[in-house]
Amino acid sequence: MLMTDTRLRARIAGLTIVSLLASPLAPLVAAQTPPAAAQTPPAAKAPAAKAPPAARPAGAAAAAAPDGAWPRAYTTASGAALTLYQPQVASWTDQKHIVLYTAIAYTPKGAKAPALGTVKVESETSVALDERLVSFSQLKIAEPSFPTLEREPLRMLVEEIVATVPLEQRVIALDRVLANIDTSQIIPKNVEGVKADPPPIFFSQTPAVLVNIDSDPIWAPIAQTDLKSAVNTNWDLFSHDPTQTFYLRHDKVWLKAAEVKGPWEPAGDLPESFTKLPADDNWKDVKASLPGQKVSAARRRRCSSACNRRS
Fold this sequence. Notes:
The longest helix has 16 residues, at 6-21. By secondary structure, the chain is of the alpha+beta class. The radius of gyration is 36 Å and the shape is rod-shaped. It has helices at 6-21, 60-63, 151-164, 174-180, 284-288, 297-310; strands spanning 26-32, 72-75, 81-84, 88-93, 97-107, 115-124, 126-128, 133-135, 140-145, 171-173, 208-214, 219-221, 227-230, 236-240, 245-250, 253-257, 265-266. The strands form 4 sheets. Strands 2, 3, 4, 5, 6 and 9 form a 6-stranded antiparallel sheet that branches. A 6-stranded antiparallel sheet has the order 12-13-14-15-16-17.
């Protein structure tokens, strides 16, 4: 909940009053397994509100506001002009007890300029979900702060607010309240059955490529060869059964390993089976990379070292 002290209230009052006045890479091969909100306040019917005509701004958007929009203007029994501006929600404990601060312009009858200030409003609330309204009809006004009013006029002002604002108009839109609530205090409920495990993190201190495989490799034989290709990855990954070796193409460089997870090293000469791949678009890039780019001894050592560190 939002916590408020004297300094915060003074700052709110001040701000409101002012506003009123104016290289081959070693692969990391990963087998991947294919793959809450503030509580809605309890429904409790609140009286539907009708905003006072004088308080409703022009325009269809403002007229459509469930609480009739703000500010709201009234004339008190003594003839004073009273304008209430949209409250700021300080807290809403358990969605039952609300604390608001609102700016007010109060012009006693015959006065040339309004007295500007703020009041604190506390009330038990009820919620009408269908109308999207929060009712605070049984309000209690405290801590009035009007620098230009003496004690007796200030007491009269508080009494006139309570007497003037009709019960059915002591409402504020639910969405306005929720927009003011400190979301850091909202604790989401745990939902059973939802997989929320953190993903694995792969780290390498040398240049590397990450080969994504959707779960365990699924191998498909290639016609008229002794090669198989992994169909659940977007990399050119092959299995050569006669030598029990795996081959991986990275651009024009070929790597090999005894296990899919590595360690990988430059492949050197490829099995003759690669030259027998079908002449179709599926293997166009693979055939274009044959026989593979040679890797220097220095780069071979770096690659082998990097692969072994990650194995």
